Amino acid sequence: MKRAVARDILKNEAKAFRARLLAWYDGHARDLPWRKSRDPYRVWLSEIMLQQTRVAAVIEHYHEFLRRFPSVRKLAAARESSVLAAWSGLGYYRRARMLHEAAKMITRKLDGNFPQSAERWRALPGIGRYSAAAIASIAFGEPVAVVDGNVERVLQRVTGKPLAGAQLWQAAEELLDRSRPGDSNQAMMELGATVCTPRTPTCLMCPVVEVCATRGELAGVAHPSHQKKREIHYALVCRNSRILLVQRPRQASLMAAMWELPRIEPPADHAGPAFTVKHSITTTDYTVGVWNLPPLERTRGEWVSSVRLQYFPLTGLARKILRRAGVLTPVTSNS
Ligand code: SF4
């Protein structure tokens, strides 16, 4: 027989946990643009964008993506390069390709109708257990729980156990408020993101402090390892108001087929880079030197005008450098 994980540990306090968490969420949830709608397309888009990406970066891209592709049919009909261009800056570009593939499947095989259950969402490209449950619970009210990094931390601290794997999903199901599953899931994630943070959780502000087993960090749970530091250099080469860009290999494991500035070794005959920017990718913090150089011999690439740059599938770092150099202006949101 399957043993109850959360109920057991919370000693019949699961009901109080749900009520307190939802009351807190109703009064304290951050006002995020994707929370204004239960439209499946918007919920799906936000969930994919939010995977491994900061909320602030997603806000920057969410409106513009919807402006370019306001419906699943428009997204399905778009060229992949346009989708990648709209995704530029969010990283993990495989997500954008999968989103595009799934939009084509929904449009062509399901006649534009979205799946209504987590199980059916999982049949689409790029949709795992977490995303399927998040979309089905938020957009369609299906009572299925989510577990992401934030929920995992909250569950471990509340129960006082280093839960993992199936136990985590089971505990999440037991603590889910089945009358408001979408809000219940979002409340758990919100608590982890804003109160029960990885380091120094603010337990004094926590709505479930009275039923929490640890009221602080759970001993023995490892923190993410420290970031590595690296230095890299790029050439900013202009000719007749055009910028030289090169395309990453189609087989590259990261940012395949995206466009960037030519990568160089720091030139010995220059005093220093024109400017530097900071950039982080997964576990590495980069200091990036950008050098103004004359057109390089033997560099293969494409000369791109500043007007076309806006719609080019640039890597996030290239976009950052070009904005800093003043040749690319930030997209202004229209909502
Ligand atoms: Fe996290 Fe502290 Fe709340 Fe427990 S009391 S859930 S450790 S913030």
Could you describe the 3D structure shown?
- It is a single chain.
- The chain has 335 residues and is an alpha+beta fold.
- The protein has two domains: 171 residues, Hypothetical protein, domain 2 (Endonuclease III, domain 1, Orthogonal Bundle), CATH 1.10.340.30; 97 residues, Alpha-Beta Complex (Nucleoside Triphosphate Pyrophosphohydrolase).
- Helices cover 41% and strands 12% of the residues.
- It has 14 helices and eight strands.
- The strands form two sheets. It has a four-stranded mixed sheet with strand order 5-1-7-6, with helices on one face.
- Strand 2 and strand 3 form a beta hairpin.
- Helix 2 crosses helix 12, helix 3 packs antiparallel against helix 9 and helix 9 crosses helix 12.
- The relative contact order is 0.12.
- The mean pLDDT is 89.
- It binds iron/sulfur cluster.
- The site of iron/sulfur cluster has 14 residues, from helix 10.
User: Which residues form runs of ≥5 with pLDDT under 50?
Assistant: none
Q: In this structure, how is the largest beta sheet organized?
A: 4 strands, mixed
CATH topology of the largest domain: Endonuclease III, domain 1
The total of helices stands at 14
Q: Helix/strand/pairing class, anyone?
A: alpha+beta
CATH class of the largest domain: Mainly Alpha
- What's the number of domains? 2
Q: Can you name the CATH architecture of the largest domain?
A: Orthogonal Bundle
CATH homologous superfamily caption of the largest domain: Hypothetical protein, domain 2
